[in-house]
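Reminder to self: tokens first, then the designed residues, so the page reads top to bottom the way the pipeline ran.
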């Protein structure tokens, strides 16, 4: 805050001395300003009361009041880079195209979904990771091709709307785009199925711009077991999956441990030479016995290895009652879909599910509960190991009250400010922590290239 210096009232003794001297040396100007038109000014008596300074000089400006938490949050959302680890826009747009519906123009305000340019700008979102989501049904059934289609889609957004969006393949590009006033579109691949058992495909996807890979999704695949799948096919990572982890380190792709089983997580931690991320997970402490979230021990191990957990906003990830309600309804939905011979991930299933959820709303968590998850990570592991991974456009109509779309990030910052968070710590949450891990992956790969004959 700028300090306004007060103007001092002149000393009566000094003023009298100056005036007395003016009697001896004429026509010198006196200490008080005299009218320039007077040829022979008559000095005032030495005992005269000095003239007060102008009112504007004697009264300092009142300092501006400190911003409210809401105002401060808005300011920080604009000042800091906000990086979100998981936004499912590509799947949303591809599904519209696949179903023969008009494809939303996310460079403009859209009526559906959680993300578009105006809402991202309003919320201060600068670097959303576009999820290249490949459903489990694509395993051994065109996964590589589908990933390529989604990458092409993201590239087309950046190309068609280059005044608003730009691809980002490194932390340096994220910062450069921020300075240029553009939203960075980074890419992470959700599900390792597109690797299709061919190790060179890891480097291929790195060259296409993929900067993290979630090793599995809702079912065990040829790389890793899933937290959702009770088969435990590999008891963690497959033999090929262990090679994939090492290759991801070598080429500079972050390993994403969201969705994978506990056994797979511990094996990744043991194998990876680079810190890893959980791009969209929350704390199992609040949802006991639900393996999709991370246990306290897992969060601490992730942090000890230098990694970051990015908190998922979905109400089922945040509130245990909402999770249990959601789990029951998913079972109902699955049974009804199976009776109609609908396959998850198909347009027909998506349309059926959309109608189902309209008539079966679940409890919604609150922005304060999301802040509780953030603070739980800080309590367990420190401020350097938590970030944001909203899962916008991926969790349907289950987002918390106060975090309904990409315009709402300041609401989370406001809660943390009210709880005493410093600006420095908020910046770490917003992006610095994840950018640090991303840079570690880049640096390790650069060193690997230098050491290769």
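Designed residues (453 positions):
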């Amino acid at each position: 805050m700028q300090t306004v210096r007060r103007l001092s009232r002149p000393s009566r003794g000094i003023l009298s001395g100056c005036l007395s001297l003016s009697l001896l040396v004429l026509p010198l100007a006196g200490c008080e300003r005299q009218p320039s038109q007077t040829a022979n000014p008559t000095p005032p008596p030495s005992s005269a009361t000095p003239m007060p300074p102008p009112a504007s000089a004697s009264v300092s400006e009142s300092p501006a009041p400190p911003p409210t938490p809401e105002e401060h949050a808005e300011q920080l959302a604009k000042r800091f880079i906000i990086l979100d680890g998981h936004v499912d826009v590509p799947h949303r747009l591809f599904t519209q195209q696949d179903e023969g519906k008009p494809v939303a123009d996310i460079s403009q305000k859209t009526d559906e979904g959680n993300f578009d340019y105006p809402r991202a700008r309003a919320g201060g979102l600068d670097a959303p990771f576009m999820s290249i989501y490949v459903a489990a049904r694509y395993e051994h059934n065109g996964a590589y091709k589908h990933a390529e289609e989604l990458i092409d889609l993201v590239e087309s957004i950046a190309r068609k709307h280059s005044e608003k969006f730009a691809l980002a393949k490194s932390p340096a590009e994220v910062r450069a785009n921020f300075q240029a006033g553009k939203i960075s579109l980074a890419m992470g691949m959700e599900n390792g199925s597109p690797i299709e058992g061919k190790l060179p495909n890891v480097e291929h996807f790195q060259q296409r711009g993929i900067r993290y890979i979630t090793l599995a999704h809702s079912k065990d695949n040829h790389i890793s077991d899933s937290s959702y799948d009770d088969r435990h096919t590999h008891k963690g990572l497959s033999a090929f999956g262990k090679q994939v982890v090492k290759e991801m380190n070598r080429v500079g792709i972050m390993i994403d441990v969201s969705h994978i089983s506990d056994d797979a997580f511990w094996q990744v931690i043991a194998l990876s030479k680079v810190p890893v991320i959980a791009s969209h997970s929350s704390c199992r402490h609040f949802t006991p016995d639900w393996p999709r979230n991370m246990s306290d021990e897992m969060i601490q191990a992730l942090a000890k290895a230098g990694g970051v957990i990015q908190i998922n906003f979905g109400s089922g990830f945040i509130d245990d009652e909402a999770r249990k309600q959601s789990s029951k309804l998913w079972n109902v939905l699955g049974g009804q879909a199976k009776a109609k011979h609908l396959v998850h991930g198909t347009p027909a299933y998506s349309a059926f599910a959309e109608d189902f959820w309209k008539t079966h709303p679940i409890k919604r968590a609150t922005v304060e509960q999301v802040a509780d998850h953030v603070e739980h990570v800080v309590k367990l592991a420190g401020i350097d190991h938590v970030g944001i991974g909203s899962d916008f456009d991926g969790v349907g109509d289950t987002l918390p009250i106060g975090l309904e779309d990409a315009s709402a990030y300041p609401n989370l910052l406001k809660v943390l400010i009210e709880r005493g968070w410093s600006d420095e710590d908020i910046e770490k949450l917003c992006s610095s922590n994840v950018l640090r891990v991303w840079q570690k992956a880049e640096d390790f790969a650069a060193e690997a290239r230098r050491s290769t004959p």
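The first strand starts at residue 82 and ends at 87.
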